[in-house]
Design brief:
Elements lengths: L15 H6 L7 H25 L1 H23 L3 H23 L15 H25 L2
C-alpha cells in the first residue's frame, strides 16, 4: 500500500487587496502625475500666509502638497487601483474644502467667502478635477477588463 500525501494548491490571492495593489500600467499615468504635481505647486505659495492667518489650514495645505507630490511620484513608479482611489479621495476632499471655504466663513478665513475666482484656487481646482477624472477613467477601464 502506498501512502498519499495531501496536495496543497497555492491560489493567487483574490479580492480587493490584489486588485488594489496590482499595477494597472495605465497610459494616463503621466497625466495623473502632472496634474497631482500641479495641485501641489498651486498650494505652495499659500502655505506660509495660511500658517500665519489660519494655522490649521496651513497645515492642511502642507499635508495636501506632500500627499499630491507622493501621488504623482507613485503614479510614475507603480500605478495601482489603490493609488487611483487615493488620488480621487485626496483631490475630491480638496475640491470639497475649496467649495466649503467659499460658501461658509471658516475660523480665521472669512475673507475667502465668495472668492471663487482666486487664480491659485482656480488652478488647483482644475488640477484636482483633472486628477479625479483621470483616476476615474483609469479605474473604469480597468473594471471592464
Amino acid at each position: 500500500m502506498t501512502a498519499t500525501r495531501p496536495v496543497t494548491i497555492q491560489a493567487e490571492p483574490a479580492g480587493f487587496r490584489s486588485f488594489a495593489l496590482r499595477p494597472l500600467h495605465s497610459p494616463l499615468r503621466p497625466v495623473l502625475a502632472a496634474a497631482a504635481v500641479l495641485v501641489a505647486g498651486a498650494h505652495v505659495p499659500v502655505i506660509a500666509p495660511h500658517l500665519d492667518e489660519a494655522p490649521y489650514m496651513g497645515v492642511l495645505f502642507v499635508v495636501l502638497t506632500v500627499g499630491c507630490l507622493a501621488i504623482g511620484l507613485a503614479a510614475l513608479i507603480r500605478d495601482s487601483a489603490g493609488l487611483y482611489a487615493l488620488a480621487m479621495l485626496t483631490c475630491g476632499l480638496a475640491v470639497v474644502g475649496y467649495a466649503a471655504t467659499r460658501m461658509v466663513a471658516f475660523p480665521m478665513l472669512a475673507d475667502d467667502v465668495g472668492n471663487w475666482l482666486e487664480p491659485l484656487g482656480v488652478m488647483s481646482v482644475a488640477g484636482e478635477l483633472t486628477v479625479i477624472a483621470v483616476a476615474l477613467t483609469a479605474l473604469c477601464k480597468e473594471g471592464t477588463r
